[in-house]
Amino acid sequence: MNRKKKIVRNIIILIALSTLFLNRGISLTPMAAHEASERSIHYGPSKVVHIEDFDDGKYILCKYDKWISCNTVKKTMFFFWTFGNQVTGIEIDKGRPLNFTWGYSSDRNKLYGIINDSNINKVELYLDDGRTLSQTEFYDNDMFLFTWEGEASFDNIKFPRKYIV
What is the top-level taxon of the source organism (predicted)? Predict the structure, then answer.
């Protein structure tokens, strides 16, 4: 192959890859996908509080101004990353003991939130299939994240308070 044909071939490959990355929101790292997700809706940059892995992706628990979010990034095409859902999250309402929201994709579920009452030392999540999930150690001292697989939805959430003398 002569030099001109190689140059044309390389330019075509470069244009194709650029189009793929720009139009599909594809990134080389999970954090780059997360940051691209925030930029795409003019949100953030948020402070990453916790990252939790699942089979083909990551949950990224974040704080931004008076908001919390749990963005999902997914692995695609072997080693590239693309953003998923719920980048904006919810606004923190300090008048409530805790704020939370939940979401699902296929059979992956997540419930996350923030504790506003310093007397809360445990968060319990009751699923409608009888399972109970609990968390006593919180991310950044006040955030929690529950993840589970299957069709079970959450039935109730409880947050026992510390005994105050």
Answer: Bacteria
Torsion from C-alpha of 44, 79, 61, 152, nearest 10 degrees:
130
Q: How far apart are CA 77 and CA 104, in angstroms?
A: 22
Would you tell me how many other CB atoms lie within 10 Å of the CB of residue 27? 20
Cα distances from 149 to residues 75, 104, 138, in angstroms, run 18, 9, 21
Place of tokens 């699902």: 104
Do 24 and 37 form a contact (C-beta atoms < 8 A)?
Answer: no
Contact 138, 159 (CB under 8 A): no
Average pLDDT value for the chain: 87
Asked whether the CA dihedral 148, 154, 155, 160 is positive or negative, the reply is positive
Domain boundaries, the chain: 92-165
Which helix (H) or strand (E) segment is 35 a member of?
Answer: helix 30-40
SS3 label, residue 21: helix
**How does pLDDT run across 35-51, given as a tens digit for each residue?**
988 888 888 899 999 99
Res. 130: pLDDT tops 90: no
Report d(CA 37, CA 81) in Å as an integer.
11
